[in-house]
Amino acid sequence: MFSLTRKPLDLVPPDQALPGRATPIPTAERHFLSDLPLKSPVPEGMEQAMFGMGCFWGVERIFWQLPGVWLTMAGYAGGHTPNPTYQEVCTGRTAHNEVVRLIFDPAKIGYESLLRVFWENHDPTQGMRQGNDVGTQYRSGIYTYTETQQKQAEASRAVYQHRLMRARHGAITTEILPAPAFWFAEDYHQQYLAKNPGGYCGVGGTGVSCPIGLAV
């Protein structure tokens, strides 16, 4: 996931984005760990969430380990190019973020608990990067599926900003937006660190706790 080439650190405008394609790129049929169909519909009573917090390999592993998270998947969102490839996203010319979409049971884990995991497991003050991973695809983002999620995300950002300032960290750069189209990443990205336990993971937090959703 490292790149020594210079990448744009501003989002490419729609008229300059790569054209993409009408046909979805191939991805895995089933989740490597649960064997559930990766494109399962959301079961009745469950909800969706989507987060961007750096390289999606490590991010997906964080969320699939949580009790109450039923299904996870890696993909691209927040850009302009339909059905992008990983190579295209890496150029910075699609405006997409590397994201993890998940389906969870709110009776077992609340959305605020997911937000707490989100804030504590990356540095949301770094703009278009996470550590050594530099580029627009590594920006911090919360993509909400309901008005309630939007309000909870915005409230959590305010609370966590206060905690970060007390710990002498900078301003949060996380974008909070209604969930855009989600494009599945290629097969080998899905549950990558389950298939490659020693693989690269660049995700790491600030060490500052977030005082929301404490009951998981």
TrEMBL record:
Residues 48-201 form the Peptide methionine sulphoxide reductase MsrA domain. It catalyses: [thioredoxin]-disulfide + L-methionine + H2O = L-methionine (S)-S-oxide + [thioredoxin]-dithiol; L-methionyl-[protein] + [thioredoxin]-disulfide + H2O = L-methionyl-(S)-S-oxide-[protein] + [thioredoxin]-dithiol. Its EC number is 1.8.4.11. GO terms for molecular function: peptide-methionine (S)-S-oxide reductase activity. The keyword Oxidoreductase applies. Keywords: Oxidoreductase. The active site is at 55. Residues 1-20 are annotated as: Disordered. InterPro entries: Met_Sox_Rdtase_MsrA_dom, Met_Sox_Rdtase_MsrA_sf, MsrA_MetSO_reductase. Pfam families: PMSR. Belongs to the MsrA Met sulfoxide reductase family. PANTHER family: MITOCHONDRIAL PEPTIDE METHIONINE SULFOXIDE REDUCTASE. Has an important function as a repair enzyme for proteins that have been inactivated by oxidation. Catalyzes the reversible oxidation-reduction of methionine sulfoxide in proteins to methionine. This is Peptide methionine sulfoxide reductase MsrA. It comes from Ruixingdingia sedimenti.
